[in-house]
Amino acid sequence: MGGEDRRAKIVALLGSAGAAVSGGRLARELGVSRQVIVQDVALLRCGGVEVESTHRGYVLRRRAMPRRIFKVRHGEEQVEDELNLIVDLGGTVEDVVVNHRTYGVISVPLNVSSRRDVARYLADIASSRSTPLSRVTSGYHFHHVSAPSEAALDEIGAALAERGYLVDRLPYETVE
Length: 176
Fold this sequence. Notes:
Strand content: 15-25%
């Protein structure tokens, strides 16, 4: 494998890893020395690839995507439609948040970014005694949604409004 192919493979491995990848592991997987990996990382950085070194190995710096909070309300039978609408427009539903008057703000990570994630989430709910968190607030809830652009977030907001899911925030609601 040539240097360019190896560096492309390093970027792919780092991009698909859920955590830092050590230089030793990269070297073993690519059949080269750790010093070659160090040199390849330096070349990648010179080429504009944002590879960071941590005490556990290398990671790709993730570009922060635009993010917005949406307050929505709907019934449990519309959860699938709402989530699919967001992911189909390129959004990632990072969490679900409720602002309960007695218990305060309750937030649970979702990290739903595809129809497969939506199906998995719905299967988890269906196969347990659990119910959507929004049940405790009569269907009102918030989602932090990230997307590749502000325009995509605008489109998501418009689509949620068109379906009748989007609602106005109240002055006391602080869930940022």
